[in-house]
Structure formats: C-alpha cells, structure tokens
Amino acid sequence: MKTRITELFGIEHPIIQGGMHHVGYAELASAVANAGGLGMITALTQPNPEALANEIRRCREMTDKPFGVNLTFLPSVKQPDYPGYIEAIIKGGVKAVETAGNNPAKWLPILKENGIKVIHKCTAVRHALKAEAIGCDAASVDGFECGGHPGEDDVPNFILLPRAAEELSIPFVASGGMADGRSLAAALALGAEGMNMGTRFIATQEAPVHENVKAAIVAASELDTRLVMRPLRNTERVMVNDAVERLLEKERRLGADLKFEDIVDEVAGVYPKIMKTGEMDAGAWSCGMVAGLINDIPTVAELVQRIMNEADGIIRQRLAGMLS
Ligand SMILES: Cc1cc2nc3c(=O)[nH]c(=O)nc-3n(C[C@H](O)[C@H](O)[C@H](O)COP(=O)(O)O)c2cc1C
What keywords appear on the UniProt entry (predicted)? Predict the structure, then answer.
C-alpha cells in the first residue's frame, strides 16, 4: 500500500505507533520498524537527553529501518530540557518526530534544518490547520475515542477525519480507536492516508510492559475507559480502576473547585508502577476505548501483517464486491 505517509517516512505500511509514556522504548519502536511501520521512542520517558541518545542507539542496534521519536510539549512547572532532547534526536540521526501537546512552532526550524519530518498530533481541525500553517509535514488526527488526551471538543473520528480531509493539504493519519484492517480501510475511506495506534500496540509481545497491563487491555471492553481531569481542562482517557473511581468521586465532590493537588495521588508517578510492576490499581493510566476490540497479544509483525491482509481483503473483495 502506497500513500503520502509511506512516502514521507520511507516505510512499507501506513501504520504508526504513537508515543506512549513508559511504553515507547526501543523494544517496541524497533519491532514496529522491523514490521514495516513507523515506531516511536517516547522522549520524555527518558530521564534526560543522554538517556534518550542511548535509547536511540539501542533502537538502531535492533533495526536498520526508519523510526521516530515522540516529543510531547506539556504545560509544566519545571520544563524538560527540550533543546537537549532535540540535540539527541538530531545527533542520533532520527528523521521523524511526532510532536504532541502545545504548538511545536518554536522547535520546527531546527528540526526541519536537520531534515527531520514532523508529524503533529492534533485533536481538532483548527489545530491541524495551525500545524500545516507552521510547516509540519503531516498530522496525526486524534479522535475522542483515543487513549491519552483527546482534548476538550469531544469530536469522534467519524466526523473529525472527514472534516480534516476537507480542510488539510498535508497528509494525515487517523488516530484513536484504530485496531485492525477494518480501522485502516475505514480511515482511508474517510480521507486519512494511514493510521496511528497506541493502545493496540501495548497488547503485543514486544511491548516492554508488565504482563498485567496487556491482560487488562485484553480483558477490558469498550465500556471500561473513563475521562478524568476534565475540570482542569486536561482531559485524559484512562482505564477504569479503583484509583480512577476515587478520582472521579473527588471531581464530583469538588466540582469547579478541583485543583491538581487534590488528585495528585491518583495521577502523579503512576506510570512506572503500572507499566513496570503491574500494580493495576496504582492510578490513572491512558487507555483507549479500542480496548474493546483487542482480544489477543500477538507479535508486532503478526499484528501489522494481519492488519494489512485484512485491509487488503476488505478493499479488494468486500467493498469492491458490493459494486455492480
Ligand atoms: C499508555 C499510553 C501512554 C501515552 N502516552 C503518550 C505520550 O506520552 N505522548 C503522546 O503524544 N501521546 C501519548 N499517548 C497517545 C498515543 O500516542 C496515541 O495518540 C493514542 O493512544 C491513540 O489512541 P488509541 O489508544 O485509541 O490507539 C499515550 C497513549 C497510551 C495508551
């Protein structure tokens, strides 16, 4: 399958693995690259730029195919060393960066000067248009279904993707709720030129996370995620658990008075406990509604090949067969 996304990133299949905190290590990024997709190392999971440089080196030892790095720009009291992370990306010879969160305009010139293709993750058409205007090469359009931060507009992909297609000139991938060949065929039909997956890639053999996390995703249905932190305008879609129920109870009780300090126990420092030690009630961790479509833990290569075969079958047989 050839699209503007496969051409842009020099990959075989139009499938991207989105950055994931404490999941996007070299093991997963290289497995996706070896399967013909675009894997992403998550920069901010690495404690400092030197550690990111090392992770990029490790990934390069595991694959000779292209892979990228996710750079998430968060509002935070103590800003991460972004110039240092960017230097590690450039020196590591990485040619694809997924930006997310705040507008990446400040960092685009240096990335572009170094021949790096930038795909910006957006949850709204207006943000995707902004990304296009400032010179991003592509957009990852993240619908309301997505695991992680869906923004505050709550527009699902059946509307968001065709709206993006109406407005954008740069290519975009569909993100949020993508799991299989049906997702890919639908994404293409709605105007995208590929898809980005988060949650689906966690439930794979190579994802370097505790087995409990993979089992929780397989066990979950599409009804098992919740939106938290909406009163703080920092909405996140997470897997429901005891901590999340407690957090939601605080949100109900405190209403508009809720402050970050009130929920710090349920959201701060949670990822290592969930992803490394498998303490599944430790706090709120991102997970998409797509968990309802995930029933196995294949290798990344099996998953990607299955997606491509299924999409091929849908497009060539099922859909073409409906035409007279
Ligand atoms: C556990 C987890 C952690 C994530 N961490 C990040 C992150 O650090 N930065 C980012 O840009 N997106 C992050 N995301 C979002 C994904 O990159 C992707 O956009 C999203 O998962 C797509 O929705 P899906 O889960 O329905 O496939 C995370 C998602 C999950 C499930």
Answer: Flavoprotein, FMN, Monooxygenase, Oxidoreductase
Residue of minimum CA distance from atom 30 in ligand 1: 286
C-beta separation of 137 from 120 below 8 A? no
> 113 and 93 in contact (C-beta within 8 Å)?
no
Q: What are the E-state strand segments in 83-122?
A: 96-101, 117-122
CA of 20 to the centre of ligand 1 (A): 5
Question: Measured from the CB, is residue 80 less than 6 Å from ligand 1?
Answer: no
- CB atoms < 10 A from the CB of 106, how many? 11
- Nearest CA-CA partner of 32 in 258, 155, 189, 205: 205
In ligand 1, the atom with minimum distance to the C-alpha of 101 is 11
Q: C-alpha angle 137/315/33, rounded to 5°? A: 45
Q: Which of 7, 68, 3, 4 minimizes the C-alpha distance to 33?
A: 68
Q: Which superfamily does CATH assign the domain made up of 4-208+297-322 to?
A: Aldolase class I (3.20.20.70)
Model-wide pTM > 0.85: yes
* Model pLDDT for residues 247-292, shown as the tens digit of each residue: 999 999 999 999 999 999 999 999 999 999 999 999 999 999 999 9
**Percent of the residues in the chain that have a pLDDT greater than 70, as a whole number:** 100
Domain ranges of the chain: 4-208+297-322, 221-286
